[in-house]
Amino acid sequence: LSVAIIAVLIPFLSHAAGRGGGWDARAEALRPTIKKLRSLHKPLGQPAPGEWLSRHKEPGQTFKQYVVQQPIQPSDERGIIYILPIGAFAEDQRKVIELTSEYLSLFYSLPVKMMEALPTSKIPPGARRMHPAMGGEQLLSTYILSQVLKPRLPKDGCVILGLTATDLWPGKDWNFVFGQASTRERIGVWSIYRNGDSSASKEAFRLCLLRTIKTAVHETGHMFSIRHCTAYECLMCGSNSLAESDGRPIAFCPECMAKVCWSTKVEPLKRMRKLAAFCKTHGFDPDYKLYSKQIAVLEGKAVE
Predict the structure, then answer these.
(1) Residue 21 confidence (pLDDT)
(2) Which of 4, 23, 62, 63 would you call most buried, defined as having the most Cβ atoms within 10 angstroms of its Cβ?
(3) Is the dihedral of CA 35, 41, 42, 44 positive or negative?
(4) How far apart are CA 28 and CA 33, in angstroms?
């Protein structure tokens, strides 16, 4: 069984980075924005055989459900996203990490800080293996979450993300995983191993960057108590394969976007302009067009 993204969702705990106070004026102010943007987003249809929702029956999560259930949020005391590189990276892979950190910061309107890299030699033999069918080293994602990331989360960190170029697997009966996160601990790990050879060409670099961004944003969303989306084609949808993940935008649907804006206290239009500029600069044309349409709608302009 191979799974693109696993999320260990244990939300609404008392030691969260921040606690919501129920439906409030900020939440109410976002409702018109959600309504205006709905027509730009494709509703999620029936899953094809093998896709995430064909194997995992999930209820989804509306913006209202998110707010009233007191989700984990960043706060003044815990407002930094930390990234811990694990293992060695080639020059082009380091560039992927840098740009992913930039997008992550723009997406969640939070500062991102890179920590000193941890060599893979620090991972014990019991948390490493050779892939049983394909060969190649893998690291145990659950070990990284509990033994590497959890004790290293700084006091001012809202979340800590481990990033590695080594393949991951989450334990017995699993083949591999692109990323895994724990809402309870505000920790997550993801790998760029299966994202393509970023050194092969400009297009290969762009694809690797796009895939890495998607996993990083998705996992961080889980750590802010955002569940898998079941309403729209959205980056918070679950993915059961690389092909399924590739079909998702790097944007959130209106409901999930509102969760981010409410949690981080950021104005949607200001945020979208920054994300659109990033997508334009790095050649993410479909996502640039989507953000541009969102901006136009919120500015009261006609959209073709």
Answers:
(1) 60
(2) 4
(3) negative
(4) 10
251, 59 contact by CB (below 8 A): no
Within 10 Å of residue 98's Cβ, how many Cβ atoms? Answer: 13
Structure tokens at 55: 């194997």
Model pLDDT, residue 99: 97
Report the distance separating Cα 13 and Cα 3, nearest Å. Answer: 26
Average pLDDT over residues 11-21: 40
- Expressed in angstroms, the distance from the first to the final Cα of the chain is 42
How far is residue 55 CA from its own chain's centroid? 21
Contact 114, 83 (CB under 8 A): yes
Amino acid at 111: P
Left (φ > 0), alpha (ψ -120 to 50) or beta: where does 42 sit? Answer: beta
Helix (H, G, I), strand (E, B) or coil at 65: helix
Give the pair of three-digit tokens for residue 169.
């697997």
Query: Which tokens go with 236?
Result: 């918070």
CA 75 to chain centre: 19
Residue 219 bears catalytic tag? yes
Among 51, 185, 219, 244, the active-site one is 219
> Running DSSP on this structure, what letter comes out for residue 19?
B
What is the token pair recorded at 156?
A: 């001012």
**Residue 135: count of CB within 10 angstroms of its CB:** 8
Per-residue pLDDT tens digits for 39-95: 999 999 999 999 999 999 999 999 999 999 989 889 999 999 999 999 999 999 999
Q: With contact defined as beta carbons under 8 Å apart, do 66 and 72 qualify? A: no
pTM of the complete model: 0.89
What gap in Å lies between CA 27 and CA 162, rounded to an integer? 31
